[in-house]
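Chapter summary example: a protein plus flavin-adenine dinucleotide.
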Amino acid sequence: MVSFELTREQKMAQKMFRDFAETEIRPLVRDMDEAEELDMDLLAKMQKYGFFGIPYGKEYGGCGGDVMTYALAMEEVSKVDASVGITMSVHTSLCCSCIAENGTEEQKQKFLRPLVDGSKFGCFGLTEPSAGTDASGVLTTADKDGDFYVLNGQKVFTTNSGFADIFIIFALTDKALGGAKGMSAFIVPRETPGIAVGKNIPRMGIRAASNCEVALTDVRVPKENLLAVEGKGYKIAMGALAGGRIGIGAQCVGIAQGAIDEAIKYVKERKQFGKEIAKFQNTQFTLALMQTKTDAARYMVWRAATAKDNHENYTSLAAECKLFASDVAMEVTRAAVQLFGGYGYSREYPVEKKLRDAKITEIYEGTSEAMKMIVGGGMLR
Ligand SMILES: Cc1cc2nc3c(=O)[nH]c(=O)nc-3n(C[C@H](O)[C@H](O)[C@H](O)COP(=O)(O)OP(=O)(O)OC[C@H]3O[C@@H](n4cnc5c(N)ncnc54)[C@H](O)[C@@H]3O)c2cc1C
């Protein structure tokens, strides 16, 4: 059952995330976006505060929170800066979850623990130049050689790869079977010889985040670093992405709410025709729709998070919340820029960045079209 009331612990955590985002992240946002680089001291501080291990057990050094609390963190952080939000999301929902949900106890102690206790960063390398929505088109190979697998291939758009310590890499262990059945998932430490991380890919939005190409040339990975069994890679990737979409839904809500908050301040200050533009009915109606849709998106995120916390099937709910919330993030940020007029288009004001940041939420961790395939396919099964 979805509760519309947060627990006392969740409210306290939400306040902590909000205060941290306001005091520690907000002063750095503009400079990080212009420099197209994250402030690594900020990330180190977030590691210390536990932002990178929220939904993982204390027995592994995590915070022992629920998915709902993680979604609250994603909203609060992304409300201030979506680049920092996606850094958390890829680390937590994509990289760590692969190990938490599929790793052996030994793998969890060796690799999950430092990821969730704030010592290391993780990334997730699935997408390739010719394998995007159709992730089964992966061409990277993993050939068995004694006690090792030798990985060769090319990943693209790998978030966090500029600084990540641990890479989850998806590669074919059986070329004849192809990606859906012949793909496997490997834990690859950054220092493994043969990994070459390219430059940050210049982007429209979430410009501060790290997002690079990763080339793998004869990367020797010990067989102990295979997750689960050979051939389970596609399932592992799809499982991680299904959970990740709850965090991206929360990111969308944060981006939208951040734009609304900025718009409210602005319309009370800006005067035209001798009065504040807040007094025009069009302004009030626009704000009303912005908030209504954002609230609806937030409850869809909470519904999916609650289902995951209750160990219910959440795949379709997560896809629905991402599909809807990303659309809302686009609509709300576009409306916010409109309320700011020409100043909204100027980089001197904060809302154009939110519009740029919102667009990626319709693309990564599955495009909106892919979300429709998941939801529609589920309805007809
Ligand atoms: C900033 C950023 C960060 C990212 N981070 C990561 C990461 O950390 N790790 C990772 O592995 N990947 C990452 N990605 C990759 C991302 O998940 C893919 O870009 C996304 O899944 C879409 O794949 P594509 O870009 O190849 O587009 P394509 O799959 O080529 O799609 C192009 C268009 O065709 C549509 N389309 C495709 N197939 C169908 C179909 N069957 N029916 C209808 N329409 C269809 C798509 O919806 C889209 O509109 C990131 C991407 C970006 C831009």
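Key point: The longest helix spans residues 233-269.
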